[in-house]
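Can anyone check this?
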Amino acid sequence: MIQKGSLLILILISFQLNAQRVFPLLDNRDYFKSFHEGQTRQLDHLKPIDYKYSEELIAFIDNKRDLFVYDGKTNEKLTGLANDYKIGINLVAWNTGPVVSVWDNGRIYDLTLFGRNYEVSDSLVVFEDLRDNVIRVYYKGEIHDLFYSISDLYFPQTIGSNTVAFRGNGNVHYAFIRGEIIELGVFNEAINFAAGANLVTFNDPFNQSFAVAFQDEVLDVEPTMVMNYKAGYDQFVYTDRNNNLKAYIDGELITLSSYPQFYEVFRTMVVWGENGVLYTYNNGTRYEIANYIPDEYKIREGIVAFRNLNGGVSVFHNNEVEIVSNLSGAPFEVNGNTVRVQVNKGNYVFFKNGFTYQE
């Protein structure tokens, strides 16, 4: 039987935050490069067929259709035949037919020779193993069984940074959290989970409450179900029945706004709109990012880059706003704590920790 308590104060293991070590770009000759700390390194002299990246690595298919990974130090070939590939922060998973493999911090493992569907999050690879008809998850060098089935497998509904919410046999629902599995309850209807790092939140239809699952316990947050909710790193944000925007941050419940227009969560960052103004919350303080709602904004690790009123790009970082570029309409991207603005084909401006670099 599941024991539930009230959400008071919990000391959680913080999830490691990631600064940017790589940032891919194509220069004006279509050379494939990576930017870091004011310098670029050439990865290939030809434009790749495809590439994906995180703060820590770049995975790409070169013009010979070989799959490579670059971790900020070395450029390593993984395979000459990848039907598909997906990345996490420090992970690259790919399949060659039914063989699903993973590269994890320099080591390659074959996860199954009988794979089908698989997904990658920040630190997980969730995959089907059709030989045993089981859903498994790779986490920190170990493979964990989530559930076996005697009928067709159904893939987990929600995958978070180091968490998975899934339905097992007999409609019993579980959460995999940092290497441990905890039972959530028996629910006959579909459940909308929000999975982040170290926690999973959900509306509990049996108890008619809003609940959060940690690694070893399930707690009621609100005595009634709430309107919507999102999860990040060791935190979650939701709107209650009175449309108050609330958050569990740094071990306590706080009210962020009584009039939210919308809200977004990315890892440790939360932003929301209120009365036509864009806000964020950091270290116990509410900050105004812009006195309007930008047409375009992107949230990453500790920063928010956005389109300013002149059409250029500004960034909120270290609790203040700075202009990155005044070039109107220039495309921009954010990776880790770095903003990249494309000035023209093959030329970029990078902003990181208050410093601007030109490439």
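Reply from J.R.: I decoded it. Residues 259 and 274 are 6 Å apart (CA to CA).
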